[in-house]
Each structure stands twice: as structure tokens, then as C-alpha cells.
Amino acid sequence: MLKLIPLGGLGEIGLNMMVVEYGDTIFIVDAGLMFPEAYMLGVDYVIPDMDYLRQNRGRVSGVVLTHAHEDHIGALPYLLREINVPVFGTPFTLGIVRHKLEEHELLSTAALHEVLPREHLKIGPFEIEFIRVNHSIVDGVGLAIRTPVGMLVHTGDFKMSHTTMEGMLTDVNRFAQCGEEGVLVLLSDSTNVEKEGHTASSHEIGAELARIIQAARGRIIVALFASNIARIQQIINITARLGRKIVFNGRSIEVSVSIARQLGYLSIPEGMEIDIDDLSRYPDDEIIMVTTGSQGEPMSALARMSAGTHKQIKIHDQDTVILSSKFIPGNEKAIGNIINNLYRHGANVVYEKISNIHVSGHAFREELKMMLNLTKPKFFMPVHGEYRHLVLHCRLAGEVGIPEEHQILAQDGQIIELDDNGFQIRDSICAGRVLIDGKGVGDVGRSVLKERRLLSEEGLVVVNMAFDEETGIVVYGPDIVSRGFVFETETGYLLQDAQCVVLEIVEDITPDVPNRVERMRQRIQSALRQYFFFTIGRRPVILPFLVEI
Amino acid sequence: MLKLIPLGGLGEIGLNMMVVEYGDTIFIVDAGLMFPEAYMLGVDYVIPDMDYLRQNRGRVSGVVLTHAHEDHIGALPYLLREINVPVFGTPFTLGIVRHKLEEHELLSTAALHEVLPREHLKIGPFEIEFIRVNHSIVDGVGLAIRTPVGMLVHTGDFKMSHTTMEGMLTDVNRFAQCGEEGVLVLLSDSTNVEKEGHTASSHEIGAELARIIQAARGRIIVALFASNIARIQQIINITARLGRKIVFNGRSIEVSVSIARQLGYLSIPEGMEIDIDDLSRYPDDEIIMVTTGSQGEPMSALARMSAGTHKQIKIHDQDTVILSSKFIPGNEKAIGNIINNLYRHGANVVYEKISNIHVSGHAFREELKMMLNLTKPKFFMPVHGEYRHLVLHCRLAGEVGIPEEHQILAQDGQIIELDDNGFQIRDSICAGRVLIDGKGVGDVGRSVLKERRLLSEEGLVVVNMAFDEETGIVVYGPDIVSRGFVFETETGYLLQDAQCVVLEIVEDITPDVPNRVERMRQRIQSALRQYFFFTIGRRPVILPFLVEI
């Protein structure tokens, strides 16, 4: 039996990581991260729990990457640090991976293997073919995996859209050939299953961008995702037509452009690119700047421009700022604030909500149906989505003719066993999420997050007191200090009154009472909790330090 | 000169409050709140800074409410507690206000005056007429305010949509008559100025709801905004046609339905409504439940159903749950999680993204243009929006023919002086935002929020030590305790090593050093900061308590 074990991505958008297993061989499709949810206070990012791989470390033979977005490669350094297996990917994907591993000081030991679309590689009993897909990054691929029980097709992240950079279209013919050969199971991207119809043509997006840029009288600043090389090429082409100069600003965009250029995926006419420090030598209406920060990231170039703190760029009227990207849910407020501030500086701002300047990289419903009809799988398993996306994608497959008993509605951590006769979903392995905070991997859990939440909501009150060990007399305090609770100059009386509350308890419990300090600690905690809730309606964390000396 | 002073709502969505002033008379249009932004940790809600009213308390003659949404009436209790002025509103608006003031123990002293659409009221030199508008709540009005310098029209929140409950349509004829009479200045709702075209017809929404409900085989649960009485009436009508029973569940919906019923705005056929405790007496396919929680509010009825903790309702397959409301930005994750969990319990879930079951209450661009053309104002001032909405609404007015020099692009706290000859925007008054946390009004400010943020991100480390005052010898500690920092059983060595760091400093600073304790405190703080950042990449708040006894 073939085993599929999703470690992430089947229950959330992001965190994509799938174990494929047959006999003694395991390989992994993607190793992605997820950005923390709002309740994960202080967490930098989230990676899949890799315990299953740790336990089967001897059998893990490789990682195959579909493309270079963080939700597909972000967990790779954490995987390789523990289990150093060969990594397979297309040239641009490995270019980004190289840069990432260098930052993690893992590049020198990593084994990276370049594979091109329509090329094959062998891992144990698996023969894996890369099939080009169109996505919002260059060099994305889906996989056709020939296994002893039949062919598995994994779409990666894809869309069908029929206009893009040369050579970057989804290789529908190859998917069709797989369909003709016979596909046992299709794993397909569910991200946009809620969206009717099909993604807009990037040709139209380019035309709209050109129209806006052509109409602008002053400087133009375009913010977008650093890895969206096709969009960057569109802007370069427009810049060339208008005879403007181009500036790339922002670390991630500089990295991405440099890798794409080296690989020949991006062509910039000689003499067009200038350095940001030479900007002052050109009039505003000869400049197009390409930058980062389209998601409102607080330290990004665009955020600094909107706040007026960017070293080289001061926004003024006549500037046109174009946000050529999606408003990702959760970032809307931050993006909105940046747009408001850009308008306050007098710029004209063009963004997705008011103009047709972005298109998603993930297939809409009509495209998902096309993929199902191209590959004609016997079984269908939706991937890359929250639970509702997976349910809706199963229903969609039903409309295309996959019977319910051939739809595999699986979730992270479940073991799907499969061959030509059927499938079963077996008991789960432990597939949680591991939180990364600073250098700590997994040491921030539920209890630490709960403490952070309590601290964040109402702050903290610390009570300090010392007693003479023998006589029980107070030798210091009560000293009461707060953080994040109240603004003390205005409500200082609150903490003074709290001192009285504490002193009453101390008087009440005479030195001869057994466990006196422990009892005081408990009474102080509950009395202050009541007192603060009664007077000001808040429940700060209360930390009494009572020491005997 | 007429003075307009926006205290809120011109720079944000929500917090709507506008001062209108002529000579010795001030009155206020709306007194709304705003829900806190993500960075306002622990804050319950936000109200406008009312300092200008406090300083001019003797001249404030009334509050006129356009409708009963929280962003228009939520700050009223805080206003009335300080300045008890008469309140004017339509019957449903005052019904909700009465309930709110009762909760704040302010009802007995409040002076509430009912005004109907097309009725007039006089406040000093102002003659104010209520004009019916269609919005996502019943009994909304705009205002035609006749002043000594000319007529001001304030739209309130409105849309033009031509199908709704009987008698709840926007009174376009009256706005047209104002236009014929001559409007000096139009203040118009900017919320949806980013949206092309016009709002969908609520007739279509009703038809879609009916189709979904008719097709459902089991129990039906509809979640919506409690105040959306027109939508509730649609559901009652569908329920009647199908001969089902209806249950209202959730506190706010019960209040809203009861007020609307008393006023005759909602008609429920005899015997249709049943109590939630009688549910078990009816088969599932005879039930329609109307409930709250469509924004993913964690304590709402729908959230408890999805979590499996609702006392009377356990979700199972055959249930159909309909979220007939918008996904408000910021709530998307919470709503998504509820939908995922409802699917996990086997329910079918229908929501805005996959079905046409909600329509906005705010005019889209075509409707905004219609309002401009109906009222033909000399001056135009956009209200109810973030800065970008106000800018875009000014531009839209320009398209309709309001010249740029007649567009008033104002912001919270500015004083707009206006008469037939022109306007000027004068220096600002202090118009900040006041944060409400528990019973505290305004005592949580920037510094407290910053402390909460620091505590929330990396937690807290407390160091406790006591020294003999004379000898300088350590008599207690160092005792090191953390909260929200690390999970101590896994990384306990961190805190042990931190003890050594502290002890080294103590040894280093001999008892004869002047200001010894203060110097130790500073050194401990910076040494621990460095130590934790180096070892684990985090920067907790460090609180050293060093006392001399």
C-alpha cells in the first residue's frame, strides 16, 4: 500500500508538508511554514511537527519542493538541521533555498539537486516527474509520481491562466498525458475553491498597469511580492517602453531579482537599472521604483515611505504608488493604514480594491475542474486548504464525476493507505504545530501563550514584601508596582489603596498561624483580584513576592 | 459662520460624532464607538475624545441620532454621564438606546425625544428634519438641517437599494426636494466609495435565502446581525411559507426582536415562535433558528455551537448553517474557524463567499453619485471613512461636478467654518480617541499599551533579591521567576544560568560602591537582556526587585 501522511496544509492555508511512503522509502513533498495566528503572541512563525520523520529518520530519502514560497520551503532549514536529506527542486526554487540555507548556516552541508520540468528523478520505488505549473512565482511545478500501485499527481500551487512569461505556462499537455496513462490519485490545490469562474488573465493586469503608469506624471512606486518575477518583468517591459529608469528597493526584492537574473528568468535592458543612491540625479518622471511591503509589513520599504522615515524616499504629490498584490486577510488594517498615510503625503494610490492590478496565483473553480478532467483520477484528495476548502473541493470533484466513495477528505496527521482497490484513513500520528519564537523551537506552548495573553490584556501587578523569619514582622514593603495595567499618574490612588488591602491581610494573619506566608500569598492574590475588578473592572496578573529573611 | 467639528468618523470607520455649531448653540450628530484595533491590547472599545464638549458644556443643546448601530450610539452613555442633554431619534433607535442606558443605569435621568421621518425639531437656530434612509437596520434617517447660513444635509449611513421592508426605503423624493430648495453642504457616507456600481437588491438576497432554506432537509440555523430587522422579517416570511417554527437565540437578537415587535416593525405569525427549551418537541426539519455570532465573536451562540459547547444545540449532519452577513476585515480568521468546525460536525454551511446571501448597508459609487445629484450641494464634505475613503469620495464628487475648491476634505478634530461665500478649515482641537478598558475611561494610553505589547510578545522575567542594608550581604535570592517567556520544565536551565549571571554582577559591585543597588539593578537588567537574546533570541520585560533591609 502507498501511504500519504499530511504533516501540514490539510487544515490550514500554509504549512504545506506531505509524507509519501512505500515500503521502506519515505520522501517529502514541500516543507512549508505558516505565519502565526493572532492568538500566538510573540511567535515568529509556525512549522509542522516533524516527529514522524524523526522517528523514521533512516527511511527518509529526500525532499521534493514544488516552488519557493515560504509556505512550501520555510520549514526546510528546521528539517535539514535534524535530518540532512537530499533536496530536489527547479533552478529558481533552489536559488531561493540556497539563500535561505546560507542565512541558517546550513548551505555547506546541504545536498541540492536541480531538476527541470519534464525531467524525472528516482527515489527508491518512486519515479518523480516535474510538470511545469503557472503560479505567482516562477519555476513552480506539480509532480507526477509513479509508484508501485499507480500514479499520484500532486498539483503543487497552480492556476491555468493562459498568459504569462514565456515558458511559464501550466503544462496542460503533460497533465493530459498523465490522465491518458491513468492516474490513481490526484492531490490538488484547494486555496481558491470558494471562487467561481477562473483567475483573471495576467495579460489584462499588465495592460491595466501600463495604463496607470503611462498616465502618471511623476514618480511611480510599485509594491509587490518579491518572488512575483513575472509581474516584475511586466513592469520592466513597461519601463522600457516609457524610457524610464528602474530602481529595486527592499532586501527580499533585491535577492529575488538577482537570482532570477542570474538564471535568465528576468531580463533588464542595459542601463535601465539605477541605484537608489543615484535617484537624485534623475527627475521624478523618469523613475519607476519596485519595492516590498505590499502586505503592510511594519519594517518594509513601503511602510517606511508612508511613515516618512525612509532614508532616500520622501513621498509627495505627483507620486503614484501602486500596490500590485492581494490584501491577505489579517493584513487589511495594516495595508489600509499605509494607503491612508500615502494619501496624506499627497500621493495617488492605486490598489486591488479600486483597480484591476492583481490576480491570484491559485486556480478558481473552473480551473480546478479542468485539472480534474485533464488527469481523470480514480481517487481525489484535496490539499492546501482549511477544512471548509477541502470539503468544498471534494464536492466540486463530485460535480465532475468523482464518486463520494473515491473522495479522500483527510486532515493533518492522518495516515491514508491507498492502492488500486481503495483507500482507508487510519489513526492519526501526532501532527501538531511547532511554534518558533526567536531561537526557540517548540518551547512556546499553550501555557506560555496563555500567560502572554493574560499579560497582554490587563497587564501585571507585582507585590513585594519581606518578613523577619523569626518574628514575622514586615521588614520591607508592601511595595506595589504595575506594568501595562493603569497609567499610574492618573490612577496612582489605586495602587496606594491596594497597599492598604495588603496590609489588612498581613495584620489579619498573626505570626503564629501555620504556613503564614503561603496563606498570605493566596489571600493577597484573591483580595487584589477582587479589589481591582470592583474598582476598575480589570483582572491583571498578580504576582506577590513574599520572602522571609 | 456655521461650524462643523468632527470628533470622530473622519479618519476611521466607526466612532462617528459630529459637532454642529452656530453662535451660542451646539448640537451633536451621533455618538458612536469603535472596536479596538489589534494593537490596543485589552481594550474593550474606543470612544471619541469629548473634551471640546466638556469645555463648552453650557452650549450643548442636544444629540441627534441617525440610527441605532454601535458606531453611532455606542458612546452615548459616556456623553450623557458627563453632559445630560436631550436625545432625539426615531422609535427603534430610541428603543435600543433605552436598553443601553438601562444597562449603564442612566435611563432614569435621560431625556429621550421621539421624532419621525419628515418631522422637524428645533434646537436654537437649527431646524432639523429627519429623512428616512435605507440601511442595514430599521428606522435609519439622514438629516436636513436648516441653519442661518443655508441647508446642511447629512446622509447618515444609507444606501439607495429599492427593495426592502415596507416603509423603509430611502426617501429620495425628500432629498430631491432639499436639492430643489438649495443645499449649502452635503455630508455623505463614504464607507463603500471603493465599490463600483450599486448594492445588490435585498429582494434577490431574500430569493437566494428562500432557495437555500427550501432545499435544506434538516434544521436551519441563520446567523446575522441582531439589528438587521428587515433580514429577520425575510426569514420569518420564508419560515411562514414553509410552515416551520422559528427560534430566536442570543441575547442581542432577543432584545432587538422584542423592540422591533413592540414597535410593529416585525410581524411574526401567531404560534410560529417557539422557545429554545421546547426544541426537542419538534423534528429538525420543522425548525429555523435565528442567532448571533456571524462575526465569529467567541462567546456568541454560533461560536458555542461550532465548539460543541452550546447547551441546547448540538450540530450534526443534515443541519444547514447560513451566515447572512459580511466578513468584517479583522474577523475573517475567527469566522473561518467557526465555519471549519461546523463542517467538522457535518453541517452544511452557506456563507457570503460562496453564496449571494448578504448585501451591504452602505451605498456603492453609483448610489453616492445619485445622492450628490439629488441634493446638488454647493459644498461637499465626505464623512464616515478612513482618510483614503474621504479622498476617493471627494474625487467622485468631482466627477459629478463639484469643483475641487468646493470639496471639504476634513479630518477628526478640525474646525470647518462655512457660509454661502466659502469655507475654511481652521486649526484643530484636541480630538483623540479615548480607550475604554473595564470601568476605566481614558486611563489606558500609549505607554500602558506599549507595556502590554512588550509583555505579550516575550513575557516577563522577575528577579528578586534582598540585601542587608549595613553589610550589603545578600540575605535573599536571587529568585528568578518568569511568565509567558519560556516553558520552564523544558528550558529551566535558562533561568538557572540567569541566576549565575546575576550573582556575578553582585560579586562584581562591592558594598562600598556608591548607589550600589541602583547600579546593580541597571547592570542586571542589561546583562539579562543580552543573555536571553543571545541564548534564545527573545527580549522579555525584565523587572529586578532589589531591596535593602
TrEMBL record, chains A, B:
SUPFAM superfamilies with a match to the protein in the record: Metallo-hydrolase/oxidoreductase
Keyword Zinc carried by entry: yes
Residue span, Metallo-beta-lactamase domain: 14-203
Xref: InterPro entries: Metallo-B-lactamas, RibonucZ/Hydroxyglut_hydro, RMMBL, RNase_J, RNase_J_2, RNase_J_b_CASP, RNase_J_bac, RNase_J_C
Record GO biological process: rRNA processing
GO annotations of cellular component type: cytoplasm
Chain residues that bind Zn(2+): H67, H69, D71, H72, H135, D157, H384
Localization: Cytoplasm
Keywords from the UniProt entry: Calcium, Cytoplasm, Endonuclease, Exonuclease, Hydrolase, Metal-binding, Nuclease, RNA-binding, rRNA processing, Zinc
EC number: 3.1.-.-
Cofactor-binding details, from the entry: Binds 2 Zn(2+) ions per subunit. It is not clear if Zn(2+) or Mg(2+) is physiologically important.
Binding positions (substrate): A226, S227, N228, H358, V359, S360, G361, H362
Recorded GO MF terms: 5'-3' RNA exonuclease activity; RNA binding; RNA endonuclease activity; zinc ion binding
Active site: D189 (proton donor), H362 (proton acceptor)
Coiled-coil blocks: none
Cofactor(s), by name: Zn(2+); Ca(2+)
Annotated positions binding Ca(2+): G42, D44, D437
Gene3D superfamilies in UniProt: 3.10.20.580, Metallo-hydrolase/oxidoreductase, Ribonuclease Z/Hydroxyacylglutathione hydrolase-like
NCBIfam families listed in its UniProt record: MG423
Subunit structure: Homodimer, may be a subunit of the RNA degradosome.
Family, similarity comment: Belongs to the metallo-beta-lactamase superfamily. RNA-metabolizing metallo-beta-lactamase-like family. Bacterial RNase J subfamily.
Function field: An RNase that has 5'-3' exonuclease and possibly endonuclease activity. Involved in maturation of rRNA and in some organisms also mRNA maturation and/or decay.
Protein name: Ribonuclease J
Biological source species: Desulfosarcina widdelii
Record gene name: rnj
